[in-house]
Amino acid sequence: MKKLLLALPLVAGASWAGSTYYAGTQAQPAYQKLLTELNAAASEMLVLEEANYTTGFTQSTAVTNVTFLGFPDNVLFQLKHDIQHTPIGSDPEGARFSASSINTTLVKESIAMEELRQIVASFDGGEPFTLYTDVGFTGTVVSDLQISSLSLQTDDGEFAFDGGRYEATSINGKIDINGLIGQLAYTDNTGNAINVAGSSANFDLQQVGIGVYTGEQGMTFPSLSYTSEVTGIDVTLEDIVFDSTTSLTGDKLNSEGGISIAAINSPLPLNSIDWAIAMNGISVDGLENYISTMNKLMDLGAEQWQDPDTIDSSITSAYKGLISPGAEFTNKLILTNDGGDVIGDVNVSFLGDGSANGMDSMATLGDLLQAITLNIELDADAPAIDLTPAAMLMMHPMAQQYILSDGQKYTSNISVANLMLDVNGNQQPLEFMLGDELNAPLDSAMADY
Predict the structure, then answer these.
(1) Which of 113, 166, 314, 316 has the largest count of CB atoms under 10 Å?
(2) Do the domain assignments include residue 77?
(3) Would you call 66 exposed, middle or buried from its count of C-beta atoms within 10 A (0-12, 13-18, 19+)?
(4) Distances, alpha carbon 180 to alpha carbons 169, 330, 331, in Å
(5) Which of 119, 122, 120, 96 is nearest to 107 (CA)?
(6) What is the pTM of this model?
(7) Chain segment 301-315, per-residue pLDDT in tens
(8) Rg of the Cα trace of the chain?
(9) Residues 6+ apart with CB under 8 A from 307
């Protein structure tokens, strides 16, 4: 049930992303191309295929079947596409477009599950979403996805959703999206209540590869709250922000993003969170290959998974293609409470093995560890730690081997380089810790992850 509810906005969003192919009197072969793109985007869960297509001079219609991957005979639901277009033809490859207006809706009668049909009927007007798309002569696509409000009463509780709206413009791989999602609220029969305030989303992207984009993305939730009449727990999160920025240098991607929560009111000793992650020097071709490999593995049957050597080799090859010498990964987490700040920082750099792609002579886990540097730092105000259960851990003899304390701060600096572990200035060869594990074949070691 949850997968079906998630599938509706997924397919709706994918439809407007590819709707440029619905144009002019050459719309049917372009529609087939659209289905190919949609299936690539939804390969881990859904399959979309043509059920019916009718071509007209200024109006065409199409119906798309949507099924779960591996169950082609069980249609979950259908989408209907009403296409108004001028009689000027479009190139089947999508190089030129006629002016078109496309209206995509859910065929409610096609929904297989009675329970889901009842939920769909609870949307305002009985229509969960309507997608309006205008395709210009130049190929510019302007889409307006309108999601209806929902009020649903069940035996377990009451659910309400204020609806939403996403507007998008795309041309030549450039996509600009602005969206608003209304308030969402749920209260169960025991008095537990969740409330998510209306949120906004903004995307400014440029496609640089299959499934690979540069640009900026962001989502903001003003507040999220949970209350329980039974336990008396009251939690509120304010100003929740998800964002990311990706740029291209040559054929390498540099991406940074994260999540921040400006204010936290809860029984826990935690006032705010700021978590930032960055990956630099990721190969575009490698990322395309990684996505393709993982999608193919997801499609394999049970018998094909009985060949672990082939699977391990595919996974290792996909991982290797992602990085090259100079690639970096950073992870920084900042937590605050009434006692102060706790800052954790992790940095990993890939140096390579001296070959062109940095991995030609890499065969063992030891070779990989020789080719990277790792640094982990902790900088925490002691009063902040003392307000948490972690204060007890700091007193443990094992923790004291890695974390220093002067009464005001807890600090730690741990690094790995040249197969040496350095803990706050005290060095030890990794061979003493890992022994024969350093000689483990790289293929099997990487496949475990």
Answers:
(1) 166
(2) yes
(3) buried
(4) 15, 31, 30
(5) 120
(6) 0.80
(7) 666 666 677 777 777
(8) 26
(9) none
Residue 309 counted as domain residue: no
Number of domains in the chain: 3
Of the candidates 425, 329, 415, the residue with the CA atom closest to the CA atom of residue 376? 415
Neighbours of 304 (CB within 10 A): 11
Q: Which of 237, 267, 297 is the last residue of a domain?
A: 267
Per-residue confidence (pLDDT) for residue 96, from 0 to 100: 41
Inside any domain, residue 95: yes
| Tens-digit pLDDT profile for residues 84-100 | 765 444 443 443 444 56
Is residue 12 located within the same domain as residue 131? yes
Question: Are 395 and 415 in a shared domain?
Answer: yes
Angle at alpha carbon of residue 266, lines to 408 and 183, rounded to 5°: 135
pLDDT one-digit tens code per residue, 428-443: 998 888 888 888 887 6
- Does residue 9 lie within any of the structural domains? yes
Which range, of 77-86, 263-272, 274-283, averages the lowest pLDDT?
77-86
Domain that holds residue 31: 1-148
For residue 333, how far is the Cα from the chain centroid?
Answer: 20
Domain boundary among 114, 148, 182: 148
The pair of three-digit structure tokens given for residue 90, joined into one six-digit string: 């479009």
Instruction: Note whether 1 and 121 are same-domain residues.
Output: yes
Residue 307 CA neighbour count, 13 Å, CB half: 10
